[in-house]
Design goal:
single chain, two-stranded parallel sheet, four-stranded parallel β-sheet, Rossmann fold, alpha/beta
């Protein structure tokens, strides 16, 4: 029961007016198997709670599910606010993109529940949330944090596809709360799962990352090879697990893929 006592769980089930499910294990290093319990089973439990009284359910997913929809040549380059249920993650995603895969499963689970029981459902897809409290094992906050600490950015162009899309935590929270305090959205949204993207209209191309950092921080940044940057970040305190993961990715020539989404 999500770590709650039976009485606490029952009290919430009987009194909550809406559920915003933002609890998840966020890590780009973990497999789907290790994330299934905290990220998928918790979603099912909370959806059942919402169903008991028919209250609205807001699921905080991730923009990274766009990687499954936009990986083919004939796929859109940027994902609109639509379902990705038909875009099944490739077999290697359970190991290489475990977090995104767990959120994809959560979205599909909620769409099935909506289809069967008409649960009022919103699926929110934030891009890279920046600000205080960003997870220490989430790649983009790590990149930002250590770039600031060492005064240098890695050369991301050539090995990074997609765009950097930063949204401040307060902006993302305001967007979710606005939906939660609404009365169900517009009339044309009634009778379907609603997808909401929380993203920045101003994307940052990989080649422009250094310029972005210099503008946002107000000082100059050195540009290092990714290998040099990882070593410098390690000296500045980068977690050993993250360091080992990045070193392995570099040794294997694994590309870094960033999702691209837009509103509408």
């Amino acid at each position: 029961m999500l770590g709650l006592s039976e009485s606490e769980f029952s009290h919430l089930a009987d009194t909550a007016h809406a559920i915003i499910h933002n609890g998840a294990d966020v890590s780009f290093m973990k497999t789907y198997a290790s994330l299934r319990r905290p990220n998928v089973l918790s979603t099912r439990v909370l959806a059942e709670m919402a169903l008991s009284r028919g209250i609205p359910f807001h699921f905080i997913s991730t923009a990274s599910v766009a990687l499954f929809a936009c990986r083919n040549d004939d796929a859109p380059s940027s994902l609109p606010e639509v379902s990705v249920a038909s875009h099944i993650p490739p077999p290697d995603a359970t190991a290489n993109s475990g977090y995104a895969a767990s959120k994809w499963v959560g979205e599909v689970l909620l769409e099935k529940i909506f289809s069967d029981f008409s649960l009022q459902t919103w699926i929110h897809r934030p891009t890279s949330v920046v600000g205080d409290g960003a997870p220490a094992t989430d790649m983009i906050p790590i990149l930002l944090r250590y770039s600031k600490m060492i005064g240098a950015v890695p050369k991301t162009y050539g090995m990074v596809s997609g765009v950097f899309d930063f949204i401040h935590v307060e902006k993302a929270v305001d967007g979710v709360v606005e939906c939660a305090l609404g009365t169900g959205g517009s009339e044309q949204d009634v009778g379907k799962v609603r997808f909401v993207h929380h993203c920045n209209p101003r994307k940052v191309e990989p080649a422009g990352f250094r310029r972005y950092m210099e503008k946002s921080e107000g000082n100059g940044f050195e540009e290092l090879s990714m290998e040099e940057w990882v070593e410098k970040a390690k000296e500045a305190g980068l977690e050993a697990l993250v360091y080992d993961f990045l070193k392995h990715a570099l040794d294997q020539g694994m590309p870094i893929q960033l999702p691209v989404i837009h509103r509408g």
